[in-house]
Inverse folding.
């Protein structure tokens, strides 16, 4: 919503796991065959995985478990396995890789300023962040070492950098040695176009006439 644009937000917040051992990281399958582990997690922050991923439609029910053989298919349905552990190092490496490419960019009152990238090219610091169905995740009684998530939305996120979140007040501060990823909610423009033609029966205007 317009009121949310620019709102400061923290993702990957260390110390506030959703269930024991899980800090909201997922196993995102890649076209190169990677699926799990710190290096794959870092690569997915730095680069596109090369496979189609989707938002789950209302009728999609994610399985209780997703393995490497089925990960690519379930990604097209909006379902992903969870990646347990903190992986602070790979997170910091991925974030540093993106921020150094547009190091002068900051977020000001008018939005992103100081970027070397101009529309329609997005700053590499603007990334897509997934929103999960929390109730669906807990419905399968995960332990933190297993479980799957159902992707229900995607929003834009301008990465400010690594930082810390005060567990009591929620205050956020940038710190290169921090364990959380801090940024701003931004618009994420579409980068693709449709290719399917409109069916002949899908006319927008119909005129009734008498014929003989």
């Amino acid at each position: 919503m317009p009121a949310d644009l620019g709102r400061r937000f923290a993702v990957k917040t260390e110390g506030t796991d959703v269930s024991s051992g899980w800090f909201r990281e997922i196993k995102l399958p890649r076209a190169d065959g990677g699926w799990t582990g710190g290096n794959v997690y870092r690569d997915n922050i730095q680069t596109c995985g090369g496979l189609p991923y989707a938002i789950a439609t209302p009728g999609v029910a994610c399985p209780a478990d997703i393995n490497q053989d089925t990960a690519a298919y379930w990604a097209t349905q909006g379902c992903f396995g969870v990646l347990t552990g903190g992986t602070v190092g790979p997170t910091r490496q991925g974030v540093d890789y993106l921020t150094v490419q547009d190091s002068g960019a900051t977020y000001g009152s008018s939005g992103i300023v100081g970027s070397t990238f101009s529309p329609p090219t997005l700053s590499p610091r603007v990334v897509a962040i997934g929103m999960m169905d929390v109730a669906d995740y807990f419905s399968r009684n995960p332990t933190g070492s297993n479980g799957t998530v159902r992707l229900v939305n995607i929003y834009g996120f301008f990465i400010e950098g690594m930082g810390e979140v005060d567990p009591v007040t929620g205050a956020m501060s940038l710190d290169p040695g921090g364990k959380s990823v801090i940024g701003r909610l931004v618009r994420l423009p579409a980068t693709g176009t449709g290719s399917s033609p409109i069916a002949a029966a899908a006319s927008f205007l119909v005129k009734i006439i008498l014929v003989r």
Remarks:
- The longest strand covers residues 148-165.
- The helical segments are 38-46, 68-76, 88-100, 134-139.
